[in-house]
Amino acid sequence: MKNQLLYFILSIAVLFSQFENEKLYVTIQMMDQVGVINTQTNQIQNIVETEIQDYIHTNSNCMDYTSEMECSMSGSCEWMMDMCMESQMDIDCMDYTSEMECGMFDSCEWMMGMCMESASSDMNTPHFIVFDEVMGYWFTTTIASGYIAQFSLIDNEFIDAIFVGDAPAILTIDVQNKKLYSSRMMPMNGMGNMMPSSESNIIQSLDYSNEGLSLSAVAEYEINSPAPHGIAISDDGTKIYTASNTADWLYEIDISSGQVIGVAMDSNVSNPSDQPTLRLKPIQCLVVGNKLFVTCSAGIWMNPWTGEQSIIPGQLQMWNTDNMTLIDFVEFGNHTAPWHIVSSPNSDKVYVALGGDNLYDTEGVASVVFSDNDLEIEWQTGNELFDTLHGIDVSANGEKIYVSGRGDGYIHILNNAGEYISNIFIGSMSMLGGINILKKQLPSLGDSNNDSIINVVDIIQVINFILDNETLSPYSSFASDFNNDSIINILDITGIVSLITYE
Fold first, then answer.
1. What is the Cα–Cα distance from 331 to 377, expressed in whole angstroms?
2. What's phi and psi for 19, nearest 5 deg?
3. CA dist 39 → 60, 70, 358, 428, 497 (Å)
């Protein structure tokens, strides 16, 4: 009877945790925040600050930084005598009366005939989010400050951050091997210092664990083109795909060997891989099986050889990853600027956020059906509320599509037929970026390793934690605390044993 009661209580607890765990994460770039939204109520559940430097400085000192780049990014430290030391200089930008003096300091900027504190120096600008839904982590890039940060999916508490510089943009994750790969931010017309960019040709590789973030043994993969912005990883975790936003070249990187294969994306332009053309301007990559999808924002193009100007329609390309050949492409129209992309969980289609241009009312969302040989636009829709759409994701059941507005401050919600349902207003000056929906639920209590099976392996993991006091991942810690008293001890082991015995 006791076991039956225990099982009933646990079932109810897990049921409620599932409803609580259906969340959408969105980067609020102008506020240096990440918003957490309950997709059942469409209400903001939590706001997470991404002031990475503040987190780090609270738990470290200048001597912790071993490179000049990290030291200079700290704000309160100065690189002297080949070491990082606490800065003896209290900088007030207003003290400097000439543009030359002002320009000597990264934290100052010459504006309106005076030296003022740089707005960009204080910003982090979170951009993209990925999840590890096995261990219970989420990660974000901060393109302005150059950090990649790790947080807990249980309580959104900061865990760790690592400085990589060069405007990290989009992340792709290998959950099985616990690795992150970061692309680089490309130039964005009209954004100025508000959106830093990079000419780097490096894809960053990071390891993560319960202890935090670290550089992988092979920390960097180098391609032959600048600004590799779009990035995706193969289903088996052996290959990385990235596209240069400025040179219109596509690359396959073999993770183990480091071999890089590059191919030109634009048959209309013959250019070396290191020469920018800015014609197709690829944005994001997505892998589905042996197919690689690449969104190309295109737009107004100035031919670098003739000086002639033309308009290139935004498009979606589909490539065969087995031989790196183009299968098919579709065009969405002039000034549509396809941005982020996501695959449907239950059909052979992808959804594309069309960033658009509000001068032409070309913002929208598109559904594209694919087969082995071709692409076909199923529907393409707009709305008067749309302004510079950015991120996109789809619910676990495939019924709802969520799109973020960089210009309008809304999360827009559509059904899978392209009909507008509702929206969530974040703020008109928020500049929303990447979004990601937490699709898996919390692990069951007792399932310490989150493999959906409660057995002796979970008991051993809890025992090892008690004996060795090793660090557990957020989800492992949650599942191991069987009686939910915030202490993992013999009582939790007894509870797990009772549940296994009952089952």
1. 9
2. -65, -40
3. 37, 38, 28, 21, 35
Measured CA to CA, the distance from residue 450 to residue 175 in angstroms comes to 13
Are 179 and 200 part of one and the same domain?
yes
Residue 5: the pLDDT is 46
Contacts of 51 (CB under 8 A, 6+ apart): 32, 124
Residues 342 and 470 occupy one common structural domain: no
Phi first, then psi, for residue 104 (nearest 5°) are -75, -10
- Identify whether the C-beta of residue 349 lies closer than 8 Å to the C-beta of residue 340: no
Per-residue pLDDT tens over the stretch 211-250: 999 999 999 999 999 999 999 999 999 999 999 999 999 9
Write the CATH number for 461.
1.10.1330.10
Residue 127 vs residues 232, 361, 434, 440, 495: alpha-carbon distances, Å? 16, 25, 6, 22, 42
In a domain, 114, yes or no: no
Contact criterion met (CB below 8 Å) for 432 and 27: yes
CATH number where 339 lies: 2.130.10.10
Q: Are residues 382 and 338 in the same domain?
A: yes
pLDDT digits (tens, 9 = 90+) for 268-284: 888 899 999 999 999 99
Considering the domain boundaries, does residue 402 fall inside one? yes
273 in the same domain as 295: yes
pLDDT digits (tens, 9 = 90+) for 52-87: 877 765 555 677 677 776 666 555 677 777 888 776
Q: What is the pLDDT of residue 21?
A: 56
pTM of the complete model: 0.86
Domain co-membership, 244 together with 383: yes
Q: Is residue 71 part of a domain?
A: no
- Answer yes or no: is 42 within a domain: yes
- pLDDT band at residue 191, thresholds of 50, 70 and 90? low
Q: Which structural domain range is residue 459 located in?
A: 2-17+442-502
| Out of 90-99, 147-156, 411-420, 428-437, least confident range | 90-99
Crossing angle of helices 490-502 and 456-468, rounded to 10°:
180
Q: What is the pLDDT of residue 432?
A: 97
Q: What are phi and psi of 113, to 5 degrees?
A: 75, 15
Q: Write down the pLDDT at residue 75.
A: 55
73 three-class SS: helix
Residue 158: name the closest of 288, 57, 12 by CA.
Answer: 57
